[in-house]
Amino acid sequence: MKPCLSERRKIMAIPSVVREVLARRIAGDIILSTSPGATIKKWRELFATSKAKLAESMEISPSVISDYESGRRRSPGSTFVKRLVEALILIDESEGGHFVRELSKLSSTLSDAILDIREFPVPVNGSRIKEAVAGTAIACGDLMSRDLCGYTVVDSLRAITTLSGHDFTQLFGSTTERALVFTNVSHGRSPMVAIRVHSLKPRMVVIHGLKEVDKLAIKLAEYEQIPLVVSNLNSVEKLLSSLANLYAQVSKSTLLETAKDRQQTQ
Question: Which domains can be identified in the chain, with CATH numbers?
Fold first, then answer.
């Protein structure tokens, strides 16, 4: 028999302050999103929870979750979002609280080494990231079609001098299913060594400003099975702008598709 919600609270206790911060962060992301249904789906998948399990925790029909995620229902109210977020956290706690603990590490102020960090409203094919950065794959190009849920742009020089091992987790935002984009890179070795020794792994690494390809960087990427891409854009500003444009395109496309689905159901 599965534990009820009140019993789950006892399984993996998360400090109340941490829970409140995370709950507000997730709820705010959903409520302020231009596509709340897609954002609900994103968080449900990040928590690795099925529609059926989430619906059971909320004591509603799975079809309600499906309707919101597909856009058949209008934007959920704050009360519904609060219940949904609470259910996601409780489910994770009942299974050990691993995702909540990782997410809680990101509640502190972001490092100055992070130039930009974004979560896509829907997964994006890795080839679109490669195209946005005018990239050339130098390792694991056959894995370029992996879906990515976000990206982080990092100043590698600042990262080396300011980021601790704990701070490194900030680079992963809400999920490891993202591209880490390192700027001011000379050879590519340092970013790949840092990724090799850390437990969290991105789905893609982009290096910008490369002067000479380091063979060890390529070997580490191949060993970790992480696509390694060299950006050919001539400035960090263009890199940031191009990725921001991709984010805007994905957000707009998601919004239009949601609006279209709503029209078809009316």
Answer: 5-104 (1.10.260), 114-253 (3.40.1390.20)
